[in-house]
Please model this.
Amino acid sequence: MILNAVVFGHGSHEAAWRGPGVQATAPLELAHWVACAKGAEAAGFDGLFLGDILCLQDRPEHHPSEALDPFLVLAALAAVTEQLTLTGTASTSFNHPWHLARRILSLHHLSGGRAGWNIVTSSYPQEAANFGWPEMPPTAERYARAEDVVQAVKALWSGWKGVSRIADTSTGRYLSHAPKDVGHTGRYGAVGGAVNLSPAPYDWPLLAQAGSSPEGMAFAARHADQVFTVQSNLADARAFRQSVRNHAAQAGRDPDTVKVLPGLVPFVGATRVQAEAELQNLSARIGLDHVLTKLERFIGAPLAGLDPDQPVPIGPDDLTDNRFSNSRARLLLAEARQGGLTLRQLAARFAAGRGHLLVVGTGADVAQVMQSWVSGGAADGFNIMVPELPDGNARFGAGVMPHLSR
Ligand SMILES: Cc1cc2nc3c(=O)[nH]c(=O)nc-3n(C[C@H](O)[C@H](O)[C@H](O)COP(=O)(O)O)c2cc1C
Model:
């Protein structure tokens, strides 16, 4: 079971920054990240996973959405961790492949071969605006660009194939020969020359992908070692994983090399009642209006004006292409329909983990769900999104890991 600790701000719950004793500006300080990372490593996680978007989130006046560059944070964390893979998110829409190729390899060297790149296409209209684009292109175009950019990055890394680093001070010879001129011409990702850093002596960095649309799945099957996905029930998760595996086989890859990791939000208590109380305590710290604004963005339909205590009147079949995340919108609305959730209930569910699998219970309960998903063919592991940071990773270690080990 592969386990990454997802580290994003104060934790996965929208209200985490308003918990008792929390410092609202903590994620601007290195000490916060060091505590998250050390907690994860001591708990026995395999990797750290840092998401990123290239804009402030909606309603920045009402919650902390300032964000440090994930690769700079990970470079600092390389110095205080030894085993964790360090995966950072970088967009194929707003980065040049040459910069990506070097930035990721830089982290790879600084961490002794532990770097990962979470490949995303970006989706917020504010991100488009920040880079002078009138709007985000449709999903298919974003993934066409992603394909081109990833191929260019791989071409830059491949340019060093067969070049040995001799580094002999006595003879004055540094390389066996110069890396080859890449000359990759793509519509979006043209690069020439070579990147000024070789992957050697390491294998290539780990490639992860986050996105669950059909285009995203096909892309992941071609390139990703790990797929980060939002799944909230075992049957759909199993179908998703099977589909990724089928796509991988069609692309000529061994399906076992593509690991599917659904996000999981654990609320762990000594008893189920205590775990539920923790969730309720956090939920009570956040306003409905705030959550609805964010939920609207994911669903792509107006929610203001609807009665919060009536069942959500929109279903997954009512969706049009919202260019943001169709896969997430469909999942949230399907869940609301199946569970007969009111808008207020859906908002609480969303605030806790944005639609990711939410497990509330004892450590044994959480471990049991994880085990059943893996043995049921629905997951190869999980991206664990603890509700509150920096303590959550260590608490997961104490509360859940012993049951998993057993
Ligand atoms: C689990 C998950 C995590 C994601 N994390 C990020 C992220 O950190 N930054 C980002 O720009 N996009 C992120 N995305 C968005 C995707 O890159 C993509 O733009 C979006 O999901 C639309 O694609 P889809 O319809 O294939 O899911 C994430 C998507 C998923 C499913």
